[in-house]
């Protein structure tokens, strides 16, 4: 068995400022491959600074341990051992893998932490002069399957050489919820955690009944088509309108369907979901992109506390109560 070795924690450069007009502290930094921003109230500068320090440390520790982009992360160690030895894991990792079980089941298998081989095959950042052929897609699909991962108390193993884990399908959303919990643990009741538009809204900002969350127009990125009133909920948006490549006039987005082994192409431009947590909202929004309009809306409507909206080439579809969260402009 390969023992888990703790890598040196990554360093995050953060900035916190107080906006006297809005009565909010504003903490910003880059992590998890995106821009992170936390707006919050505090009763004193000491409380504000203590929370900021704990929040940034939690994110740094999480990325150090679970990022596939770090060669010394635990995830990278597990991936290097694919087809070989077991890797030792702790109770925290076991709890995250248990979450993977739940999410995989909830999304009918379309959220699969073993998708990394397919992600590499269709990497939108690469030049694709020639698209992956059927043989390469089929062979890569053979490496996919959460049920293939072997687990026992305190250890995990990927049985096939070439298999690889990636928690990117839900890791950022999980981190958002955890940082919101850090805020609560520091006595902060009003806080908006926003990691690359994956959001957890606690309470409300001063002088307003809720936080306002803008909804980006996927047909004109940078512009807004509406906004949500968010209070004690998670909000997430998924879509392929920012991360994609083009080949022979066709766009191939970064969201992949493990069932076909190919990028999703079903007319959906973006999906926004509100739920009881950012993790739930993020997983549902991605699942809807894969499952499509009809099955996706059924999934959201069948999830307690969740509402969703789909922006498509043909128009907008939403669950029955999504409009109740919209803010009239």
What report would you give on this structure?
With 329 residues, the protein is an alpha+beta fold. Among the domains are: 74-165, ApbE-like superfamily (T-fold, Orthogonal Bundle); 209-329, T-fold (Roll). It is 29% helix and 27% strand. The chain has helices spanning 45-66, 74-80, 91-106, 116-121, 134-141, 171-185, 278-291, 293-301, and strands at residues 14-19, 24-31, 34-40, 87-88, 150-152, 155-157, 191-195, 198-202, 211-216, 224-230, 233-239, 244-247, 250-253, 256-257, 262-263, 268-275, 307-312, 315-318. A 9-stranded antiparallel β-sheet has the order 1-2-3-7-8-11-16-17-18. Strands 4-6-5 form a 3-stranded antiparallel β-sheet, with no helix packed on it. It is globular and about 60 Å long.
Give me the secondary-structure topology:
Elements: E1 14-19, E2 24-31, E3 34-40, H1 45-66, H2 74-80, E4 87-88, H3 91-106, H4 116-121, H5 134-141, E5 150-152, E6 155-157, H6 171-185, E7 191-195, E8 198-202, E9 211-216, E10 224-230, E11 233-239, E12 244-247, E13 250-253, E14 256-257, E15 262-263, E16 268-275, H7 278-291, H8 293-301, E17 307-312, E18 315-318
Antiparallel strand pairs: 1-2, 2-3, 3-7, 4-6, 5-6, 7-8, 8-11, 9-10, 11-16, 12-13, 14-15, 16-17, 17-18
Helix pairs in contact: 1-6, 6-7, 7-8
Element-by-element helix/strand order? EEEHHEHHHEEHEEEEEEEEEEHHEE
Main sheet specs: 9 strands, antiparallel
Which CATH first-tier class of the domain at 209-329 would you pick? Alpha Beta
Radius of gyration: 20 Å
What structural category characterises the helix and strand content?
A: alpha+beta
Q: CATH topology of the domain at 209-329, which one?
A: T-fold
Binned strand content = 25-35%
Total helices: the number is 8
Contiguous runs where pLDDT drops below 50 for at least 5 residues: none
CATH homology-level superfamily of the domain at 209-329: ApbE-like domains
Give the tally of β-strands: 18
């Amino acid at each position: 068995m390969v023992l888990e070795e703790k890598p040196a924690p990554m360093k995050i450069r953060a900035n916190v400022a107080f906006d006297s007009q809005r009565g909010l502290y504003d903490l910003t930094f880059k992590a998890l491959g995106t821009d992170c921003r936390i707006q919050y109230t505090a009763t004193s500068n000491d409380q504000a600074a203590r929370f900021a320090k704990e929040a940034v440390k939690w994110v740094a520790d999480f990325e150090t341990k679970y990022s596939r982009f770090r060669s010394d992360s635990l995830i990278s160690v597990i991936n290097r051992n694919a087809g070989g030895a077991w890797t030792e894991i702790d109770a925290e990792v076991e709890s995250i893998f248990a979450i993977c079980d739940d999410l995989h089941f909830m999304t009918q298998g379309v959220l699969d932490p073993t998708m990394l081989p397919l992600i590499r095959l269709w990497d939108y950042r690469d030049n694709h002069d020639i698209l992956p052929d059927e043989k390469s897609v089929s062979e890569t699909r053979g490496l996919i399957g959460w049920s293939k991962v072997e687990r026992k108390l305190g250890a995990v193993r990927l049985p096939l050489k070439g298999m690889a884990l990636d928690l990117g399908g839900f890791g950022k959303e999980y981190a958002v919820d955890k940082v919101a919990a850090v805020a609560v643990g520091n006595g902060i009741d009003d806080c908006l955690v926003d990691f690359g538009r994956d959001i957890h809204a606690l309470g409300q900002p001063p002088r307003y009944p809720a936080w306002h969350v803008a909804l980006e127009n996927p047909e004109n990125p940078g512009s807004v088509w509406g906004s949500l009133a968010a209070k004690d909920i998670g909000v997430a948006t998924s879509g392929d309108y920012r991360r994609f490549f083009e080949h022979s006039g066709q766009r191939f987005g970064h969201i992949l369907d493990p069932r076909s082994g190919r990028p999703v192409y079903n007319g959906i431009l973006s999906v926004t979901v509100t739920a009881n947590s950012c993790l739930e909202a993020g997983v549902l929004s991605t699942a809807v992109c894969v499952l499509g309009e009809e099955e996706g809306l059924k999934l959201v409507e069948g999830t307690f506390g969740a509402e969703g909206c789909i922006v498509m080439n043909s128009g907008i579809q939403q669950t029955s109560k999504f409009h109740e969260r919209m803010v009239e402009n």
